[in-house]
């Protein structure tokens, strides 16, 4: 029997996914949650074979939850199921060790097949995305020491600041609360020894050789 835990802040969505998956005689839903906090505690209690996670949750990101689950419970595989098709989010999912990234527009039969692929050890992430993530990790030590001190999430946010995105826009792009982004920006500026996000944007543009 394949045990599955669902994380989405919309109960109707959770019930819909559960209804699809429970048509399979070897699938069983062992729990549901609508927030990162509740999901973290209940996944630890149930230890399902698979956790299906939305990206945007009221108190945080499903991708950050994925990273936590994979670190604390490596036998629990994670599948990101979201309405947002975004390269940055896919990259973050790779770095968080998600087994797959699917859109909610996926067909019923493809969702079932994807779950079977993931629980048997398969991956649903494009090889190019995994290669890009590997390059990011391998080149970190060769970067500016200040940049090297940033976490992967902080580097993502720095790049988006250089693209002139606001905290709200960054939150929408990465599936984070605006307050969470603000906290990341504050920590990032401190590590870089800078006072303002404009300085951070200039730092990133100069570092990457982009136009000022």
UniProtKB/TrEMBL annotation:
CDD domains recorded: LuxR_C_like (cd06170), REC_NarL-like (cd17535)
Modified sites of kind 4-aspartylphosphate: 54
Keyword Transcription regulation found: yes
Domain Response regulatory: 3-119
PROSITE patterns xrefs: HTH_LUXR_2 (PS50043), RESPONSE_REGULATORY (PS50110)
A Pfam entry, by short name: Response_reg
SMART domains per the UniProt record, alphabetical: HTH_LUXR, REC
InterPro entries, alphabetized: CheY-like_superfamily (IPR011006), NreC/VraR/RcsB-like_REC (IPR058245), Sig_transdc_resp-reg_receiver (IPR001789), Tscrpt_reg_LuxR_C (IPR000792), WalR-like (IPR039420)
Keywords assigned: DNA-binding, Phosphoprotein, Transcription, Transcription regulation
Domain HTH luxR-type as annotated: residue spans: 143-208
Protein name from the UniProt record: Response regulator transcription factor
């Amino acid at each position: 029997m394949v045990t599955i835990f669902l994380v989405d802040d919309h109960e109707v969505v959770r019930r819909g996914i559960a209804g699809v998956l429970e048509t399979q005689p070897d699938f069983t839903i062992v729990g549901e949650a609508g927030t990162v906090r509740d999901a973290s505690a209940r996944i630890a209690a149930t230890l399902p074979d698979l956790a299906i996670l939305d990206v945007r949750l009221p108190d945080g990101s499903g991708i950050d939850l994925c990273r936590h689950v994979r670190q604390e419970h490596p036998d629990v595989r994670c599948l990101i199921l979201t309405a947002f098709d975004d390269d940055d989010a896919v990259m973050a999912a790779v770095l968080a060790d998600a087994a797959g990234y699917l859109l909610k527009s996926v067909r019923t039969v493809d969702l079932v097949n994807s779950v079977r692929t993931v629980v048997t050890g398969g991956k649903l992430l494009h090889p190019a995305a995994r290669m890009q993530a590997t390059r990011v990790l391998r080149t970190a030590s060769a970067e500016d020491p200040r940049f090297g001190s940033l976490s992967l999430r902080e580097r993502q946010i720095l790049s988006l600041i250089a693209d002139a995105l606001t905290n709200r826009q960054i939150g929408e792009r990465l599936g984070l609360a605006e307050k969470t982004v603000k906290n990341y920006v504050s920590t990032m500026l401190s590590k870089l020894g800078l006072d303002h996000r404009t300085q951070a944007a200039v730092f990133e543009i100069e570092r990457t050789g982009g136009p000022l």
